[in-house]
Amino acid sequence: MNKEIPYKIYLEENELPTQWYNVRADMKNKPAPILNPATLKPITIDELSPIFCTELAKQELDETTPYFDIPQEIRDFYKMYRPSPLVRAYCLEKKLGTPAHIYYKFEGNNTSGSHKLNSAIAQAYYAKQQGLKGVTTETGAGQWGTALSMACAYFDLDCQVYMVKVSYEQKPFRREVMRTYGAKVTPSPSMTTEVGKRINAEHPGTTGSLGCAISEAVEAATTQEGYRYVLGSVLSQVLLHQTVIGLETKAALDKYGIKADMIIGCAGGGSNLGGLISPFAGEMLRGEADYEIIAVEPASCPSLTRGKYAYDFCDTGKICPLAKMYTLGSNFIPSANHAGGLRYHGMSSIVSQLYEDGYVKARSVEQTEVFKAAEMFAKVEGILPAPESSHAIKVAIDEALKCKETGETKNIVFGLTGTGYFDMVAYQKYNDGEMSDYIPTDEEIAKSLATLPNV
Amino acid sequence: MNKEIPYKIYLEENELPTQWYNVRADMKNKPAPILNPATLKPITIDELSPIFCTELAKQELDETTPYFDIPQEIRDFYKMYRPSPLVRAYCLEKKLGTPAHIYYKFEGNNTSGSHKLNSAIAQAYYAKQQGLKGVTTETGAGQWGTALSMACAYFDLDCQVYMVKVSYEQKPFRREVMRTYGAKVTPSPSMTTEVGKRINAEHPGTTGSLGCAISEAVEAATTQEGYRYVLGSVLSQVLLHQTVIGLETKAALDKYGIKADMIIGCAGGGSNLGGLISPFAGEMLRGEADYEIIAVEPASCPSLTRGKYAYDFCDTGKICPLAKMYTLGSNFIPSANHAGGLRYHGMSSIVSQLYEDGYVKARSVEQTEVFKAAEMFAKVEGILPAPESSHAIKVAIDEALKCKETGETKNIVFGLTGTGYFDMVAYQKYNDGEMSDYIPTDEEIAKSLATLPNV
């Protein structure tokens, strides 16, 4: 059997999923409802609709429909880069000398360089369907902004990206990819919004933050006719779209009669992890199968392993709805020395509830170890991974080495969410031996958690 | 039939070619022999072997063996990123409103970002087989250096890359990818070689050139025990390895019963074009089929369309063997305003002979038009193409628009050699409207051609 598994398992085009899977439908303990920040009551579709596209607002709140059809236009776009390969990491296994079989679902073979495109194209589609002129969003490092730019170019939608000023200046290449796709990229805080002007006045010379960029993007969406705001992670709608990753992974494994023992993914806002694990968690929730699911987070931003399960604001600016989630507090800002993404203070409410109920385990890892794993992986598997994805690589390697000790032939599946081509500043730091680790103290976390809203 | 062709045609792993195809075996007019620069007589394997790996020197000189087995170790590496997809450009066709069917063979889905890896892994393999410690090479923009670094990391070979100083400083990210793969990257001219010291003394503050970097790499190879020099294009051995592109393309077309009418590729040194077209040119040479084959070169470096078919040095430093080829003269240096690669003064001797004999046509295009085509392609097909590859896109679009006028349903196949993720400086110029065109004058070309060696 082993010999027959190719290096890359490609599904046929007609095996591309036709529906996204809404894992909430199978959860006995549903995620707590998101709350209107003004009333602190569960938010309604009417309240969400001025900010989000109506169809997306519906998806956000729907806890019972198990499957959503993927519209044909989105499937056609998916066909340009999906089904993505499930790769058997033969070379990594050989390098490690492990009896474990390692598989990774590779989402990096598209110009956005990551899984973000899976939801970007869906969100752009619904905006187009609603007859909107365009969408606004924020971006930090630029992966999400790039994906959204591509999606908007495809549907001929205007795309306005507020990019954290420090990234805008330090990551000019990401910015140029977005511009090539026709997006308008504005360094945030800008002088084009009221909130931007206010922040610039209060903090002259500030290089911006994600929280500030969100505020500007939301203001831009709500003050221009025919615009809505879109977001790249955390939300349940995003996780829903990302289930295309898990559904393909499961289909590819089933095709070759492989039963995963362990599923590993990196976790920032939780949408890629949630998308990867949903079909597997669904089987667990329905009592049909058992898997060991591990969410890997950076030690510098450990929302699952050291955060609190509580209602919190989704944004630093506290203008977005509140969600119940594992959080470090919306004031928590990870150390600037932390290289990759995965900097979000909270965690998708779906993933949080699955973790709370024991379906998902969590592990935190330090960044120099992550880059060491990334370097080894790049050399033997030929793919330079994104720092975010490398968190999953690190734990997959650890688990494969445990199998080497115990002699177990486990099937380890992990999500390789993207490539690191636009992260070479971080790799340079690592190559030069100048990378260091940062772990927040208990006091720092307690201080941030003390500011949780009283809900 | 049309409807059944998927967006991406992936061959199965067991359909990966087992042999490279040596088109010279089918050529009645063989390429003229390469000459020893010291004696001006056809060079022998013994004379080549101190510089090149022995097996590669044999491949270089072999004009009669039609097929070379691809060693299993190389095929195993190929499996990590090959077979590469042949993509039906449905979205581009729709955008253009053309009845033509457009296909592209996409070589960019690997970390080197281009087809260069196909030959890098072969050259590293033969170096390892010969028991060498390492290899040396030069790189300009860094695509070849990246590919070779990956290949050397895989086979645990030392890799020394002399990178043109101006690129070393302006393209730090390419440099870091190479370093991550363990390569030693030295800005050229350096103070580590005699020739480098001499050039630095004669031209203080020089930012280097490819010719100088070649000289340093050759010196480094011949003065260190257990090293050889390797090259990423132009040579017949490189073209041989790149036939994996054309063989897969043909197999994919055959699988779906598609007969190509036109095959288009960009041409710098000629190895990707030669590799793509070899199996098709072979059919033409054997009188079995007919195709329209178009080599696309930049108007700023027009070796086929405005050069001379003559013996010339392969390098600016005039230390490498002479080849008969279409050339602009080894002194020709394309304008610095030319953004992409495709800057080589000459053309693979195989491609040159096929062009001389009428099997290949050539067309030159200006760079702003090329970037315009690249932008359109990126938006509808979702892949940000390399500037080099975009030369082929430009002509494919032109030909598809001709079909729109005539109503012909031609099958147009082109080579998309790589991605543009490390070329964002050029895209920025284009996005900012600061890109201009350069076409050398007749006088400039005549002046450079006047320096051709008297052979």
TrEMBL record, chains A, B:
Known pathway: Amino-acid biosynthesis; L-tryptophan biosynthesis; L-tryptophan from chorismate: step 5/5
The record's section on Pfam families has: PALP
Q: How does it assemble?
A: Tetramer of two alpha and two beta chains.
Q: Where is the Tryptophan synthase beta chain-like PALP domain?
A: 81-418
Q: Briefly, what is this protein's role?
A: The beta subunit is responsible for the synthesis of L-tryptophan from indole and L-serine.
**Top-level division of the source organism's lineage:** Bacteria
The identity of this protein, by name, is tryptophan synthase
The yes or no answer to whether the keyword Amino-acid biosynthesis is present is yes
Family named by the database record: Belongs to the TrpB family.
- GO CC terms in record: cytoplasm
Against InterPro entries, the record matches this protein to: Trp_synth_b-like, Trp_synth_beta/beta-like, TrpB-like_PALP, TrpB-like_PALP_sf
Q: Which reaction(s) does its UniProt entry say it catalyses?
A: (1S,2R)-1-C-(indol-3-yl)glycerol 3-phosphate + L-serine = D-glyceraldehyde 3-phosphate + L-tryptophan + H2O
Species name: Agathobacter ruminis
One MF term in the entry's GO annotations: L-serine hydro-lyase (adding indole, L-tryptophan-forming) activity
Q: Required cofactors, per record? A: pyridoxal 5'-phosphate
| Keyword tags | Amino-acid biosynthesis, Aromatic amino acid biosynthesis, Lyase, Pyridoxal phosphate, Tryptophan biosynthesis
Keyword Amino-acid biosynthesis found: yes
Query: EC number(s) of the enzyme?
Result: 4.2.1.20
